[in-house]
Amino acid sequence: MNNPLKILCAILTLAVFPIYVQSQDTFNWTSIDPGDSLNWTDCFSPPLQCTRLNVPMNYSASNAGSFALALIRVPSSLNGTAAYQGPVLFNPGGLGGSGVDAMLQLGTQLATVIGPEFDIVSFDPRAQLQVMQTRHP
Q1: How far does the signal peptide extend, from start to end residue (predicted)?
Q2: Burial class of residue 59 in the structure, from the number of CB atoms within 10 Å of its CB (0-12 exposed, 13-18 middle, 19+ buried)
C-alpha cells in the first residue's frame, strides 16, 4: 500500500467512518411534532437545535403521502442582527450519510470555520434513521 492515493483514501475513510456509526439514541425525535414550518427546539446538547418538517413523497403527486424530514442546526449567534447572513445547508454526501450524525460530530467545527453569521443546517436524507413516514396515501 505504498500508493499515496490509497493511503489518503484509507485515512479519509477512517476519519469519516465514525460520523456514520454514531448512535442517535440520546434524543427522542418523536418528541418533535412534524410541521409545515421550521420550529426549532433544543436537542442533544447545546448549541444544537432540531426540527421535523413535513415534506411530500412526490411533489408531482400530492396523493403519494408525505414524510417527516429530520433537520438539525447549529444556530448563528448573530441571528436577529444586521450581521446575520442566513442558513448554510450542509449535505453529508456519500451513500447513506446521515446529516444528523455529521452535525453531532462536526457541527461546532463547521460553525467555527464558516463563521458566526450563518446557521449551519443539515438533514437525514431518505432511508436514514430519523426520516420517518408520517402519512400514507
Answers
A1: 1-23
A2: exposed
